[in-house]
Amino acid sequence: MGRPLIVVSDGFDKSLFEQLKKMSELEVHPESKLSREQLMELLPRMEGLIVRSATKVDPALLDKAEKLKLVIRAGEGVDNIDVKYSNKKGVKVANTPGANSNSAAEHAISLMFTVLRKTAWAHASMLRGEWEKTKFNGNEMAGKTVGFVGFGRIGQIVARRLSGFEIKVLFSDPVIKSSDIPYAKPASIEDVFKLSDIVTIHTPLMDSTRNMITEKYLRLMKKSAILINAARGGIVNEDDAYICLKEGMIRGGGFDVFASEPLQKDSKLLGLENIVLTPHLGASTDEAQFRVGEMAVNQIREFFVNNKLLNEVKA
Predict the structure, then answer these.
(1) Which of 50, 84, 73 is nearest to 311 (CA)?
(2) Chain segment 162-192, per-residue pLDDT in tens
(3) Which of 19, 82, 83, 198 has the fewest beta carbons closer than 10 A?
């Protein structure tokens, strides 16, 4: 009986990939970044697959993966994996919860400050040889009310990291109804949008949250408020966000995630002057990628060597 073939498709920490390849019980494909076409060629033999957000584990892939036993999402969100169909095919799905939470939280905070202080636009102005001090008057974080749509692990890290700025926190979450953070208070989603100076999205992408944030809520926001989405694309309706930003109904926005990634070159968001866009960088730190990879390597070892499944995700 041959060794199980393990494939990594979206890149991996080099030292951890070497650890994985040294496991004598496994056969590991020598490349860690594969195109869809390369991946499809390996499917008939593959028993374990580690992906990040780029690889779509959909029915077309799963139907050809006759030997596949385990898909690990090196990260937390599994919206690029058809978990229900995977389970139907007998394929286990796991993720690496918490490994990139600090980095995702810090990136959301960085977007807040970038929009509040207009640093991205000031930088672009400097590159053009300009010196426009009065043009880029911004706002302080201190004393602001920050509203959270979703208040799980990452949202709570954001709230705690901002504590030194003496902020107030309002949160709306279908599961979490109270918090031990003394300055965090539960509220209706309507009040989160009405009363906050900053609204930040921290909910997973599911059927119930897809296109959840529409003009209905955005029109409730203060004209001076900003909207941050470093959670998942598809939660905020981008057409509605575009209208509200374009017409000045809200002051600005910071988006790290988009309904379609990479962001299409003809996206209307690219034409706005009051939004900061980043290419899904929430987990893009050396520290987060090492922790994510470390957890994934351990999960592969536990599953294929010790017959133990860690951090299973079910539909």
Answers:
(1) 73
(2) 999 999 999 999 999 999 999 999 999 999 9
(3) 19
* Residue 182 backbone dihedrals phi, psi, to 5 degrees: -60, -25
In the predicted structure, residue 315 carries a pLDDT above the cut 70: yes
Structure tokens at 89: 């095919």
Q: On the CB side of 202, how many CA atoms lie within 13 Å of its CA?
A: 31
Domains and CATH numbers, the chain: 5-99+286-304 (3.40.50.720), 101-277 (3.40.50.720)
pLDDT band at 1 (very low <50, low <70, confident <90, very high): low
Q: Strands, DSSP E only, in 89-174?
A: 92-95, 145-149, 168-172
**Angle of helix 286-304 relative to helix 14-21, nearest 10 degrees?**
10
230-256: string of b/e by CB count within 10 Å (b at 16+)?
A: bbbbbbbbbebbbebbeeebbbbbbbb
Which residues lie below 8 Å from residue 85, measured CB to CB, with a gap of 6+? 58, 59, 62
Task: Judge whether 35 and 56 are in contact, CB under 8 Å.
Answer: no
Q: Contact at 8 Å (CB) between 35 and 59?
A: no
Task: With cut-offs at 50, 70 and 90, classify the pLDDT of residue 244.
Answer: very high
**Whole-model pTM above 0.85?**
yes
Cα–Cα dist 173/149, whole Å: 6
Active-site amino acid positions:
232, 261, 280
CB 106 within 8 Å of CB 159: no
Distances (CA, A) of 210 to 101, 198, 199: 21, 21, 17
Is 80 exceeded by the pLDDT of residue 199? yes
Cα–Cα–Cα angle for 168, 171, 174, nearest 5°? 170
